[in-house]
# Entry
Amino acid sequence: MTRRSSGLFAPAFALVYGVLYAAKQPVFLYYPLHRVLALERLPATSGPGMLWYGWLTAGLVAGTATVLLVPARWTTRVPAAVSWLTVLAAMLLIAAGELHGLFA
# Structure
């Protein structure tokens, strides 16, 4: 992975992670009390499910797929500042949403 092709990993990761986070829709849930990965929510007796692992996995898959599928000639047109500004914007939106209870 070259420096230029990796410039699209962070925005793709941030976009998918942010959308799934705002919607509270993980790809899967992890239940640490039983050490179980589940595609659907388990009964409340199973304890709390952790959504973070599902969001992280979806972001990693989206970022990796973007790097592998987008042609290198397209990635040279995207300045590095655009990549990091996209990530910064996603982080600020998530933080603002949490502070104001938008994602409750």
